[in-house]
Amino acid sequence: MILRALRDLAIGENLLTNPDYEPKTVAWIIHIDDAGKFAGLVRTVEGKKLNIPRRAGRTSAASADFLVDKSEYALGICRQEKLTKPRKPKQLTERLSLFRDGVRLAHRSTGAAALGAVADFLGRDEERGRCAADAEAGGYQNNDLFAFSYQGELVHDLPEVKAYFSASRHDESRGGVQCLVCGRERPPVDKHPGIKLPGGTTSGVALVSFNSNAFESYGLSRNENAPVCRECADAYTTALNRCTERNYVNPEGEILARRSVWIPDTTVAVYWADQAAGFLDLFSSLFDQPEPEAVRALLEAPQAGRLPSGLDARLYCLLLSGAQGRAIVRGLHTGTVFEVEANVRRYFESIEIGHDRPFSLRDLLRAACLLGKTENLPPSVAGDFFLAILFGRPYPGTMLTAAVSRCRAERKVPPARAALLRACLIRNFNQEVTVGLDKENSQPAYRLGRLLAVLERLQGDAQRGLNRTIVDRYYGAASTRPATVFPALIRLAQHHLAKTNSPGFHQTNLGEVMDGIREFPSTLSLNEQGLFAIGYYHQRQQFWKPKDKAAQTESGESE
User: Fold this and answer.
1) What is the pLDDT of residue 118?
2) CA–CA separation, 276 and 138 (whole Å)
3) Cα–Cα distance, 182 to 228 (Å, whole number)
4) Do the bridges between strand 268-273 and strand 314-323 make them parallel or antiparallel, or are there none, so unpaired?
5) Which of 134, 262, 482, 542 is the most buried (most CB within 10 A)?
6) Domain C-terminal end among 147, 171, 195
7) Using N-to-C axis directions, what is the helix angle for 444-462 and 526-544, rounded to 10°?
8) Is a pLDDT exceeding 80 seen at residue 95?
9) Are residues 534 and 420 in the same domain?
């Protein structure tokens, strides 16, 4: 189902005008004259993409791509200082020979003058040396791609060259088997094209691969166990690369809307629909860098009658990461765009906490991580959290546990963590948690969180310039075992009231909060600890909320 849906995406978006070519960033064009001599090296516009012969993808073994490749193959040079494992002269000579042999074979088959000129250039040390010197002066990088130009035309774009390359990729002499994707009797590919994934190699990793006899059956070897024809392999990998790439350029030169969200750096979620759906064009930005206007439009869309088109389309979401030369599929889930749009709306409603800007997915994940580093969160948890947002499932319990633990360890509740806690309590425990301070909320955990903030403010007014407050000393115990801490804090508050300049203001706050507390519970459960943190956050935000001068004077609060 995955591969078939991806193939349909490639066909539906016309990504396969020439299935044997793919858009790649080419950094340098080597100009060759009629005699096969070096005529100049030109750097392309940064980020310039050209449709080049589809790359085969490399393993640890040396393998040259056709007519467009890195400097190791196209010129036999590289920046040794940039490599963790420097190339030996013999290795560079071997790579250049592989590249040159491919061009010579094409020239013998087609007789194209352009291919002959490129082959002559590759065989002349002096000409290649001149080109290498210009590349060095221009600051080439080891992963830069080099292409060739002859008489003002790109060699790989010539019709006879295209025809040769296409024929070389489709070996019809091999016996056909039923393709798993299209069901036709076709020769299967030996190696699937690579896709760019976090954690994978720069040349890409294969989604379908077999590296051990344990995964083989019925006497079949390697990819024969999952036969996919060349056309389908090119189609699904093109679709995946289109989804994972941030600024994918289609064959017509148009930049397509993103179809991926990185969660956060180790996993990528790619998504697509089986028909056009306008909502998907905003999808990535809503999670990466949500703009207040876009989120507001999403939340108000049902009331304003502005629901996007294509809501009945089926949406696919695939979680991927790369490791050890292959892709890891962490999950595939589907639903209608209508359902996903509604779930994303509920998600943004649940993380509203009165902050000036909507939080990104990375903000929320960092709020649950040690030192705010997302690599400290297991990839499966981050992926499950994202899927729960899309498909309306309970959030992973690990997220609530991690967020509560960070509150205790750091003894503070930053806005993003408060938003995450609110979302978890609403989704997983069906609790009503308001955006701002809720004075009518009589739940003990919420009241106790507010009480700690009130006591902290009182201490701050009574003892200015403290290095450690009662929150720094007692937050962990107060949020887990209130009965062991709060009686002592209430007695301490009487001393602080005697030292403050506005005792009436603080007594009013203490009375209002404690009016709903009959006794201090011995322990608080995990979700109650989350509610405690939100109560603490709400009360602190209320204290620092801007007030007009008259209101401050009336309350008796000192500046």
Assistant:
1) 96
2) 44
3) 8
4) antiparallel
5) 482
6) 171
7) 40
8) yes
9) no
3-state SS assignment for residue 277: coil
Three-class SS state of 29 = strand
Q: Is 376 among the domain residues?
A: yes
Same domain flag for 351 and 485 = no
Supply the DSSP string of 174-217, one letter for each residue.
SPPEE-TTT--EEPBPSSPPPB--TTS-TT-BBSS---SGGG--
Q: Assess whether 310 and 425 both reside in one domain.
A: yes
Structure tokens at 304: 């304003």
- Dig out the tokens for 418 from the structure: 């408060």
Cα separation, 114 vs 36, whole angstroms: 9
Tell me 556's DSSP state: T
Mention every residue, 6+ apart, whose C-beta is less than 8 A from residue 196: 202, 204, 241, 244, 245
Considering only residues 25 and 264, tell me which one the structure prediction assigns the higher pLDDT: 25
Residue 456 and residue 413 share a domain: no
d(CA 99, CA 119) in angstroms, rounded, equals 9
Q: Which tokens go with 331?
A: 């999950």
Domain limit, last residue, from 140, 171, 202: 171
| Total number of domains constituting the chain | 3
The pTM of this model reads 0.78
Helices (H), 289-396: 292-304, 337-350, 361-367, 379-391
Task: Provide DSSP, 279-306.
Answer: THHHHHHHHHS--HHHHHHHHHHHHHT-
pLDDT at 408 over 60: yes
For the segment 465-509, what is each residue's pLDDT rounded down to a tens digit? 788 899 999 999 999 999 999 999 999 988 888 888 888 888 888
Q: Do 276 and 414 fall into the same domain?
A: yes
- Cβ contacts of 89 within 8 Å, gap of 6 or more: none
Domain coverage including residue 65: 17-171
Instruction: Quick: pLDDT tens for 36-68.
Output: 999 999 999 886 788 899 887 776 678 899 999
Residues 133 and 135: their CA atoms lie apart, in Å, by 5
